[in-house]
Design a protein that fits this description.
Helix content is 30%, strand content 25%. The N and C termini lie far apart (72 Å). The protein binds flavin-adenine dinucleotide. Flavin-adenine dinucleotide (FAD) binds next to strand 2, helix 2, helix 3, strand 4 and helix 8. Flavin-adenine dinucleotide binds next to strand 2, helix 2, helix 3, strand 4 and helix 8. Its EC number is 1.8.1.4.
Length: 473
């Protein structure tokens, strides 16, 4: 048994590594267990987000957006850029370098803050003991006053489309495609499917997205989903709703995808198929039966609002617990838990967690949708402002989309903000801050926004809540 720690964190994704750094900053003796190793056996930090999720996908989205804009948006601005095309191998190499820099940076932060890295697979035993099995099979035992479980998630695999090297890929394999597939199939029109589809449609792939549900992006406000569907199909994504994959057949370098839709049995031949039907918590063998931690039937760890499990001193955060599978939600849960361990008062406002889909235009939202509020019987006021009426958006050549703000009819408090727009991911932070401070639409109406900025659309949407927008009739 090694020396006792104040905190042991299992998993070094955005939930775990942030929790470990915060714990060390607060003077707690902290260790973080991580099982991921590279080809040379060295630990890989950063989890899904940095290695095969948020960061690499955004690197590819940025590159392909720039190329697409050069091809389709430069000429109208008087910029002559002939023969602009993608070099997929260089694009992927740049993405890999960004991942390497960031994951290496976390190792540096661990060192600087005094976090002990325990390489290996962690398992929680009874009495807050953690068993670590390293890559060579050596087992060590560590004790702690508090344990934070942050093991993250893995892609869901479906029997009709088993992963097949180079042809049928999950999200990790999809990020390593280094030649433009002429025909790309995607199963699942969720966040990951739409982001991957956008990347390759911009590069010229014929992209077909099969979505089993009859509705598109049902989690978003209906104005957002309608606008997004219109814009994405215009960009060339063939999104088939109500299309359920029933089987796949690999023939040489092609995949035949069989699916059923309202018209019966269909098939589609593609060069690569990405399976993006969701992710599941990675909790198998993470805790022993006598650890006191309980899981639900889908494998998520039961926690309360402050991420406490059923076992005293054991917490769970991020993708392994209820709530949206988002990096920033995982990190903020990590900080909340460590603050509680250190004796501070802490909570997380789950009503103000922003969601973003990084297509172009981007989709971003926080709070409730118009449909949710109407179903709950809340009387609301809605203001909407299109980017087509924004001078700065025109100058930026990014006039698609809108800002939609929903406020309570009686109290004027902002209840939800929904944005489709070029920099929706940045604008949504304004709405998050406003809602976190319980702002009313009037608070934003009385706030001075610089001119000309794309942010003025947020101001105008707040004004539109009371039919006072200046730049729309
Ligand atoms: P993870 O990041 O999954 O990290 C868990 C870590 O624990 C891993 O390193 C794993 O190796 C380790 N581990 C697991 N079990 C053990 C064990 N027993 N012992 C030791 N170590 C263990 N979210 C966003 O907010 N924004 C985005 O733009 C975004 N884009 C995404 C794009 C893609 C393609 C994907 C797949 C996901 C994306 N996500 C995004 C989701 C985001 O990556 C996750 O929500 C986030 O990584 C969850 O953090 P986590 O710390 O809970 O888990």
């Amino acid at each position: 048994m090694s020396e006792k720690f104040d905190v042991i964190v299992i998993g070094a994704g955005p939930g775990g590594y942030v929790a470990a750094i915060r714990a060390a900053q607060l003077g707690l003796k902290t260790a973080c267990v991580e099982k991921w190793v590279d080809g040379k056996g060295a630990p890989v930090l950063g989890g899904t987000c940095l290695n095969v999720g948020c960061i690499p996908s955004k690197a590819l989205l940025e590159t392909t957006h720039k190329m697409h804009e050069a091809q389709h948006g430069f000429a109208a601005q008087g910029i002559v850029a002939e023969n602009v095309h993608i070099d997929p191998k260089q694009m992927v190499a740049r993405k890999d370098q960004i991942v390497k820099n960031l994951t290496g940076g976390i190792a540096g932060l661990f060192k600087a803050n005094g976090v002990t890295l325990l390489q290996g697979k962690g398992r929680l035993l009874a009495n807050k003991q953690v068993e670590v099995t390293d890559k060579d099979g050596n087992v060590s035992l560590h004790a702690a006053d508090n344990v934070i479980l942050a093991a993250g998630s893995v892609p869901v695999e479906i029997p009709p489309a088993p992963l097949t090297e180079g042809l049928i890929l999950d999200n990790a394999g999809a990020l390593d495609i280094d030649e433009v597939p002429a025909r790309l199939g995607i199963i699942g029109a969720g966040v990951i499917g739409l982001e991957m589809g956008s990347i390759w449609a911009r590069c010229g792939s014929k992209v077909t997205v099969l979505e089993a549900m009859d509705s598109f992006l049902s989690v978003t406000d209906q104005d957002v989903s309608k606008e997004a569907y219109k814009l994405m199909t215009k960009q060339g994504l063939d999104i088939k709703l109500g299309a359920r994959c029933t089987g796949t057949e690999v023939n040489g370098s092609e995949v035949t995808v069989k699916y059923t839709d309202a018209n019966g049995e269909q098939s589609l031949v593609v060069d690569k198929l990405i399976v993006a039907v969701g992710r599941r918590p990675l909790t198998q063998n993470l805790v022993s039966d006598d650890s006191g931690v309980k899981l639900d039937e889908r494998g998520f760890i039961f926690v309360d609002e402050q991420c406490r499990t059923d076992a005293p001193g054991i917490y769970a955060i991020g993708d392994i617990v209820r709530g949206p599978m988002l990096a920033h939600k995982a990190s903020e849960e990590g900080i909340m838990v460590v603050d509680i361990i250190a004796g501070h008062k802490a909570q997380l406002n789950y009503d103000c967690v922003p969601n973003i889909i990084y297509t172009f235009p981007e989709l971003a939202w926080v709070g409730k949708t118009e449909q949710e509020l109407k179903n709950e019987g809340v009387a609301i006021k809605v203001g909407k402002f299109p980017f087509a009426a924004s001078g700065r958006a025109m100058a930026a050549n990014s006039t698609e989309g809108f800002v939609k703000m929903i406020a309570d009819e009686k109290t004027d408090r902002i209840l939800g903000v929904h944005i489709v727009g070029g920099i929706a991911s940045e604008l949504i932070a304004q709405a998050v801050i406003a809602m976190e401070f319980c702002a009313t639409a009037e608070d934003l109406q009385m706030t001075v926004f610089a001119h000309p900025t794309v942010s003025e659309a947020v101001h105008e949407a707040a004004l539109a809540v009371d039919n006072h927008a200046i730049h729309i009739a």
